[in-house]
Amino acid sequence: MSTTKNLTKQKPYQVRIQTFALAFALLLLLSLQQAHSEQNQLKNLYKLQHTTKIAISSVDTKSNTIEFPAMGRVVGESGFIWHIYDENYASIIATATIIEIKSSQNEYSPKNTTQEKTSQKANPQKQNPKDNASQSAKAIARINPISVLEQKYLPSPTNKPVAGDEVHFGTLNSLAFIIAPTLETYDSIRASYPSMQFLNSDLMVGYLFDKSKFDPKPKVLSNACAVYSVGLLFLVTRDRLSVLDCQSLVELDSVAFDTSAVGQTIAPFFSRVQYASSGSLDSALKRKNSKQYFEYYDGLLKEGKNFK
């Protein structure tokens, strides 16, 4: 009642000022919360999910590599090589993994700053050389045999990649697996990235146990992704969330992820499938290093395909 009486005693312009100040404060608070939320989001995820088709510029048969415009793709990304037979027919003949991004020979150099500034004054619509360099960067990718989308009942492709064929990136990147230490961290990731379609971790751990494995090694992880046509692997390590390419196991993106509240972890990672020991001597002697969750997956993140 007292608050109501005080408001009625105030002049109309005072009430309007207070209302405006309150609305402004709420708007500022919402903006700060949104900015904080964006800081804790993966920056390159949208680009990784976007499918890009890039024509091959050249093929080096000695090094078994191809070169093409980078178009914003990054080292570690895997894609499909499509052989173009004619305007109506094409097929996947191999895969490619980016191993290097080369800058253009016309790359921006600090030595040319004065000359560039003079040129820009004379022609203000001329594009910044830094932008030209980034747009004309070239990617070098290693050619690999098909492992993802492989059809054992169809004949293996015999065509070799040639200039003019295409590399398609992001084709499988709408699907991902999550490796997380607990249900809480697992659910947090699923809720934070609604644009991703996360396959249940039970599928991957089931594949792992079916192969009589406990600790997930690089080859098994890549094979599990290939079986389910998954492109990305979300991996929780100590205070970090990383997105790995499922085939190269190279980190493509990362963001800070608080794991300080994580107590007991689940091995080899969170799932509803429990490991059933056969009771054999072999099973008893089998290493279970992933029970030390953070130590194990920190090592996997650091070493990638070379992790033992």
Automatic annotation (TrEMBL):
Which parts of this chain are annotated as the region Disordered? 107-136
Q: Which UniProt keywords apply?
A: Signal
Q: Which residues form the signal peptide?
A: 1-37
Q: InterPro entries given for it?
A: PgbA_N (IPR029276)
Does the UniProt entry include the keyword Signal? yes
Presence of the UniProt keyword Chaperone in the record: no
The Plasminogen-binding protein PgbA N-terminal domain, residue ranges = 53-108, 134-301
Q: What is this protein called?
A: Plasminogen-binding protein PgbA N-terminal domain-containing protein
